[in-house]
């Protein structure tokens, strides 16, 4: 049970956005820009960064939602998403993305853990300053989102299939549509 009274028992951040529409709008806009805005990193790559950080933060709702969106961007490839969650260095992703995921993991632990060597590795793999910047910002933002979702003890469906349609909608329509689509997720059984 959530720490606050969330109407309709909507899962994860959806219940929180329904509870506080004033904060929902800027939070949705930020994630829209970070994961779907113009960028040299694909939306799939950025979703993988969000998924990895959320998985490492043990935020079931966020890593499941963003993992489903990443899989949709990757043509339904859940194998890559699962590999990034488990051990990204062995995943079938580019060296550049591996270097950026390493940076994201350091940001997740603490921003000051990112070293000059981490940045040099990313640059050596072809990452631009904008890609490094956006990776750090995605990781930092998802630490906030994860702590928002879990800090208020929201619930999340256990069944990975509950996130498939959500992932498709997020990938195709974006985060401005989050309340509408995610509100269609199964309500918590009472």
Please explain how this structure is put together.
The chain is mainly α. It has one domain (10-35, 42-182): AhpD-like (Up-down Bundle), CATH 1.20.1290. 65% of the residues lie in helices and 0% in strands. It has ten helices and no strands. The protein has helices spanning 12-19, 21-36, 43-56, 60-73, 78-87, 95-109, 116-124, 129-151, 164-173, 178-182. Helix 1 (12-19) packs across helix 2, helix 3 packs across helix 8 and helix 4 (60-73) crosses helix 9 (164-173). The longest helix is centred in the last third of the chain and has 23 residues, at 129-151. The chain is globular, with a radius of gyration of 16 Å. The N and C termini lie close together (10 Å).
| Unreliable stretches | none
Q: Order of SSEs, N→C?
A: HHHHHHHHHH
Task: Determine the fraction of residues in helical runs and give it as a percent range.
Answer: 55-70%
Tally of domains: 1
**Average pLDDT over all residues:** 93
**What is the makeup of the main sheet?**
none
Q: Strand fraction band?
A: under 5%
Number of helices: 10
> Terminal Cα separation, in Å?
10 Å
The fold-level CATH name is: AhpD-like
Q: Say which CATH homologous superfamily is assigned.
A: AhpD-like
Main CATH class:
Mainly Alpha
Looking at the overall shape, the CATH architecture is: Up-down Bundle
Total count of strands: 0
Structural class: mainly alpha
- Overall outline: globular
Radius of gyration equals 16 Å
Short description:
The protein has 190 residues and is mainly alpha-helical. It has helices at 12-19, 21-36, 43-56, 60-73, 78-87, 95-109, 116-124, 129-151, 164-173, 178-182. The longest helix has 23 residues, at 129-151.
């Amino acid at each position: 049970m959530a720490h606050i009274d969330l109407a309709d028992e909507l899962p994860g951040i959806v219940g929180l956005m329904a509870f506080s529409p004033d904060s929902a709008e800027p939070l949705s806009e930020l994630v829209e820009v970070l994961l779907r805005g113009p960028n040299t990193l694909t939306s799939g790559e950025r979703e993988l960064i969000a998924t990895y950080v959320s998985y490492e933060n043990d935020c079931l709702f966020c890593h499941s939602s963003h993992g489903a969106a990443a899989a949709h961007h990757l043509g339904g490839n859940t194998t890559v998403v699962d590999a990034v969650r488990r051990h990204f260095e062995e995943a079938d992703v580019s060296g550049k993305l591996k270097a950026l995921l390493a940076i994201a993991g350091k940001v997740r632990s603490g921003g000051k853990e990112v070293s000059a060597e981490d940045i040099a590795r990313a640059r050596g793999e072809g990452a631009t300053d904008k890609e490094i910047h956006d990776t750090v910002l995605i990781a930092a933002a998802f630490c906030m989102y994860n702590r928002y979702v879990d800090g208020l003890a929201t619930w999340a469906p256990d069944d990975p299939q509950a996130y498939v349609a959500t992932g498709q909608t997020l990938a195709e329509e974006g985060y401005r549509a989050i309340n509408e689509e995610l509100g269609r997720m199964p309500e918590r059984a009472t």
